[in-house]
């Protein structure tokens, strides 16, 4: 098991870059004061990792939140993603420039291909490799890539993705994909760890929360980390941002980790990477 110590702990990517294993997701956080506050509160609470995307339409607010926080820029791991209709070599480079302008940053810590757009993601990846070589990005990766997408991408690339950000929760563990990523030193990362809120009404999780004297969210996020999966729960509420990160004073017993693994039913709450039309 990877070492989990505290909120500022990191997992090391295959190029040696240290990526904080716990971060703030800002999907659906409104641009402007809402996302600015969320970023500032998270950094104040000790978070050192913020995950956005061009399609979230809040990069500007994320950049402002980082600027307005007293923490030095180099201590904050900032992630964004290229959207589907910007994919392709030249258009990805343009999209990256536009993101950087909105974020008002000199470099990005991690840039991801948001979805595996058929016929385009290889050219998109070449653009990411170029950005990486130019040191405008410290790490590059993908999001929503299944094993066959990764295998296809990895034929003929110079750089293997450093990260794969996937829908990940007890109903969608995809252990084979996890194992594949681990074998190729691709760091796995979770989105939608709470099953879009469905997790909160389920008795199984209520029992586990009671057992550990923690909230359901805290139990699930702890499970993510114990699986070696980076997690970025989203919230724009200060108390939730603080509570989500309060997971470093307990550990799930191995049998409970296995029990949560065993709940896997291949059920998605988000789009299917093999069948999306956006």
TrEMBL record:
GO molecular function: oxidoreductase activity, acting on the CH-OH group of donors, NAD or NADP as acceptor
Top-level taxon of the source organism: Bacteria
Keyword Oxidoreductase: yes
Active site residues of this protein: 56
Residues the record lists as binding substrate: 114
Record site: Lowers pKa of active site Tyr: 81
Sequence ranges assigned to domain NADP-dependent oxidoreductase in this UniProt record: 32-264
Keyword annotations of the record: NADP, Oxidoreductase
Pfam assignment, any one: Aldo_ket_red
Matching PROSITE patterns: ALDOKETO_REDUCTASE_1, ALDOKETO_REDUCTASE_2, ALDOKETO_REDUCTASE_3
InterPro entries xref list: AKR, AKR5G, Aldo/ket_reductase_CS, NAD(P)_OxRdtase_dom_sf, NADP_OxRdtase_dom
PANTHER family named among the record's database cross-references: 2,5-DIKETO-D-GLUCONIC ACID REDUCTASE, NADP-DEPENDENT OXIDOREDUCTASE DOMAIN-CONTAINING PROTEIN
Membership in a protein family: Belongs to the aldo/keto reductase family.
Protein name listed in UniProt: Aldo/keto reductase
Lineage of origin: Bacteria, Pseudomonadati, Bacteroidota, Flavobacteriia, Flavobacteriales
